[in-house]
């Protein structure tokens, strides 16, 4: 066995994790998604506080701070090298509203400070020990403000279930092999490939595992090391997660991936009626995960969640302002195609073209859009259309006011760094543009 001082609670820490940006964690995205689901979101027109637990290479926190000057941002990570890099970039970009905290979550539970209006986390909950998960819950219980939103990204059953055997092999091989993380990743993947090509029964029984191995071999070594070599990697059942956060007074709202809140676009058609018979919550979400073969969830929770009545919900929707993103189609000549977990899904031109055509002329509020056909008689259709177009990377909710930002300064700092995804920072929406699907 090859123990390493660079392990952190069984988590491989001797490799740089690639810079990833998670648009689902941005304040305007979370505000609009919670509003679409019928809940009162934190007011972005007032000062607010946002925290990322397990910030990794820090790109999401950096973009959030640079594009949202009204907010105060905190990035927390147990890896001193990564949090140091984030702090250095923030200082050079002049991001005075970003605090970088080097701390294990088991220690961060003792930090007393103001509450957060947003807590976000991706790539932590399913990768850490039970003790760290307990500390995560304690932080949420102590620090998430009433009405505050929590976004949690994690590997989930059943889509990730078949990876458990392969992950265990990668972990054991990583413990056995000598060398730095890239060398251990190469050796571990080579062993897994030999088993796949040699007719191992696991791969014969699970054809999807071969496709997942192909995808692993295309990823950077740092990603594989962090993702699969750790000791505590464990996909989660959504029912367990919902109940865990209910225990700290956080109600499940839905998905931070908006299209997953629309069964018509994310569930096979023959199952939709059956799902409508199930009570919302753990049972319905477990059924949805089976229907989609879900491997990654981005759950949205709220402290002391209270659903808005119909009139208040419409008022909250009317206040949202949407803008077309760069590259959005200005004129639809046919239906949209959404490439989803269940395969290609068609979006009818008659539903989406009016919103896209209007927004091509400039930002408009929900109230201004819903007086147009076909939404004038059914604002719920507009709500679903905007959620789907947001997920598709065509439109985005805007910030309530325009202020000077540090977006240009951050872009200059990120440009020369290796491995940074090409992002167009867009202060009007408080985020960066990403494309998810093609027409």
Automatic annotation (TrEMBL):
Residues annotated as domain Methyltransferase regulatory: 222-303
Keywords: Methyltransferase, Transferase
InterPro entries: Methyltransf_25, MeTrfase_reg_dom_prd, SAM-dependent_MTases_sf
Coiled coil: none
Record keyword Secreted present: no
Stretches assigned to the Methyltransferase domain: 52-148
This protein's name: Class I SAM-dependent methyltransferase
Origin species: Luteimonas fraxinea
